[in-house]
Amino acid sequence: MTANSGKKSNYRFVGCFDVNTKTTIMKTIHLVLLTSMAAVLAGCDTPQTSQSIMATGEYAAQEPITQSLFPADQAALSDEAVERILSSKLELPAKAKVALIKFPDNGFDESRYYSYGAYYWRDEAQLKLRQSQIDTLSQALLTSDQIVEVTPLPSLMTPSRPSIPSLREAAVRMQADLLLVYRVGSDTHSQYRMFSKDKVRAISTCEIVLLDVRTGLVPFTRVVSRERVESKQATDFDLSETMRRAEEESAGDALKDAANDLVTFMKSVPKKSG
């Protein structure tokens, strides 16, 4: 017997590999799999940028198109008129009379009531809201040296199905140089609290469109959203009054900012001489 015959071997063979060798192989395989998965995930995270076909050399080599080939377009506006409009400049009046009209919302008869779920604003509250919006717009617009008068378009002159031609005609009858069409939409969210005052968050979005009555062009549009948070006060009959106050404030902020943007715009555009 040899000197080592009495010692037990530290290696145990399984099949044709010992345990240490098999463990090393498994660790290597595991490392390879992790590396592959990391590469795949990295490839997924990398944004794939695609080039627009209009930016290719093949597209740039094509013949340019200079007029509409759609028959319906010709019926509405000729190519000659389109070219003249796009190649001309618009001059706004140095002193302008502005007509105001609130664009109706999808046929909703707001003169009857305005609702918050089970709560309703009756005619008096709705009329006050409309008047406050007109006052907010008028006060902001009259800060411009170019605007000498702001007049609401009476409901009797408002077409049942408003369109740019019909609104323009109504403004012409009032001898208004400019027509400002606006619309305000609001959304309210209430937060009920057990140990503090309930709160209401209102988000109002104001859209305005300025129409030059003489040319029928629309030189200015703006969409402005503003937010207000109001707490229920002891004088509020219920949460609907808090909602109304939050909406009035947010709508007023949006209207005022939109009107101020219009005043700034009018200062920067060409004015008619004389």
How does this model look, in words?
With 274 residues, the chain is of the alpha/beta class. It has 2 domains: 15-40; 93-268, ABC-type transport auxiliary lipoprotein component (Rossmann fold). It contains 7 helices and 9 strands. It has helices at residues 19-45, 57-60, 71-76, 79-86, 123-141, 164-173, 239-268; strands at residues 13-14, 17-18, 96-102, 114-116, 119-121, 147-152, 178-191, 199-212, 220-231. The strands form 3 sheets. The chain has a 5-stranded mixed β-sheet with strand order 6-3-7-8-9, with helices on both faces. It has a two-stranded antiparallel ribbon with strand order 1-2. Helix 5 packs parallel to helix 7 (239-268). The radius of gyration is 35 Å and the shape is flat.
Considering DSSP H and I runs of 4 or more, what fraction of the residues is helical?
25-40%
| C-alpha end-to-end distance | 127 Å
Structural class call reads alpha/beta
Choose one word for the global shape.
flat
Annotation, overall tally of beta strands: 9
**Major β-sheet, in short?**
5 strands, mixed
**SSE sequence, one letter per element:** EEHHHHEEEHEHEEEH
CATH T-level fold name of the largest domain: Rossmann fold
Which consecutive residue ranges, at least 5 long each, have pLDDT under 50? 1-14, 107-122
**Tally of DSSP helical segments:** 7
Task: Name the CATH architecture of the largest domain.
Answer: 3-Layer(aba) Sandwich
Which key terms come to mind for this protein?
single chain; 7 helices; alpha/beta; disordered N terminus; 274 residues; Rossmann fold
